[in-house]
Specification:
The complex is a heterodimer of chains A (about 130) and B (about 100). Chain A has about 130 residues and is mostly beta strands. Helices cover about 0% and strands about 50% of the residues of chain A. The chains are: A mainly beta (about 130), B mainly beta (about 100). At the A-B interface, β5 and β11 of A face β4 and β5 of B.
C-alpha cells in the first residue's frame, strides 16, 4: 500500500522561504519510471501543479513558479522536499504531494498522480 | 504551455441523471489525459487515466473518452456520492483544468 504524508509549517511570513517534506512508503524512488509531484490548491480554487522529481533525479517545474521552486529527494529516507522562496499571501494553499507512476500501455508510457497525501494547509501572513 | 479548459465550471443535476463534463486542451495531447474527483476537505482521487481507462475500484458508471484536444468524462447515472468537483489533467506538463463543481439540483 502506497502512502504519502506532507509536513512543514502551517504559517509562514511574507518573503520567507517555505520548506515542505513529503514522506512516503510503499514504493521506492529508485524504481525506474517513478516520480513524485507537488500540487497546491488555494482555498476554494483549482489544483495547480508545482514540481516533479523523477527516479533518476530529473526535475520539472511549473513555468510560472520555476524561479522560486526547488525539489529534491532523499531516497534513503523516502522523502521529497519542496522549497518555495519569497512567499506571499497569494501562496496560501493546501499543498499536496503525490505518487506518479509510469505505466506502458501498448508501447506508450502514461502517468498520473495516484495516490495523494492528505495535504497540508500553509498560510502566508504577517 | 498546454492549457486545459473545462466546461461547464459548475453543473446542477439530480440523482440518476447522466452527466458529461468536457475538457479541451490548447494543443493535441493524444490520450495523455487523466480525470480526478475531489470532495470537500479531501485529496483528489484518480478516476480515469489515459483518457478512457478506469482506475481500479472506480465504479463503472464513470467513463472517459476523447483524444487529441477534446475529452469527456461521463457519469451514466449520478449517485449521491458523486457530487464533488472534477478535474482533468494532461500528463505532458501535468497542468490541471480549472475544475467542474457538480452540485445537487
Amino acid at each position: 500500500q502506497i502512502t504519502l504524508k506532507e509536513s512543514g509549517p502551517t504559517l509562514v511570513k511574507p518573503t520567507q522561504t517555505l520548506t515542505l517534506t513529503c514522506t512516503f512508503s510503499g514504493f521506492s524512488l529508485n524504481t525506474s519510471g517513478v516520480s513524485v509531484g507537488w500540487i497546491r490548491q488555494p482555498p476554494g480554487k483549482a489544483l495547480e501543479w508545482l514540481a516533479l522529481i523523477y527516479w533518476d533525479d530529473d526535475k520539472r517545474y511549473s513555468p510560472s513558479l520555476k524561479s522560486r521552486l526547488t525539489i529534491t529527494k532523499d531516497t534513503s529516507k523516502n522523502q521529497v522536499v519542496l522549497t518555495m522562496t519569497n512567499m506571499d499571501p497569494v501562496d496560501t494553499a493546501t499543498y499536496y504531494c503525490a505518487h506518479r507512476p509510469r505505466i506502458t500501455i501498448f508501447g506508450v508510457a502514461y502517468n498520473w498522480f495516484d495516490p495523494w497525501g492528505q495535504g497540508t494547509l500553509v498560510t502566508v501572513s504577517s | 504551455d498546454i492549457q486545459m479548459t473545462q466546461s461547464p465550471s459548475s453543473l446542477s443535476a439530480s440523482v440518476g441523471d447522466r452527466v458529461t463534463i468536457t475538457c479541451r486542451a490548447s494543443q493535441s495531447i493524444s490520450t495523455y489525459l487523466n480525470w480526478y474527483q475531489q470532495k470537500p476537505g479531501k485529496a483528489p482521487k484518480l478516476l480515469i487515466y489515459a483518457a478512457s481507462r478506469l482506475q481500479s475500484g472506480v465504479p463503472s458508471r464513470f467513463s472517459g473518452s476523447g483524444s487529441g484536444t477534446d475529452f469527456t468524462l461521463t457519469i451514466s447515472s449520478l449517485q449521491p456520492e458523486d457530487f464533488a468537483t472534477y478535474y482533468c489533467q494532461q500528463s505532458y506538463s501535468s497542468a490541471f483544468g480549472q475544475g467542474t463543481k457538480l452540485e445537487i439540483k
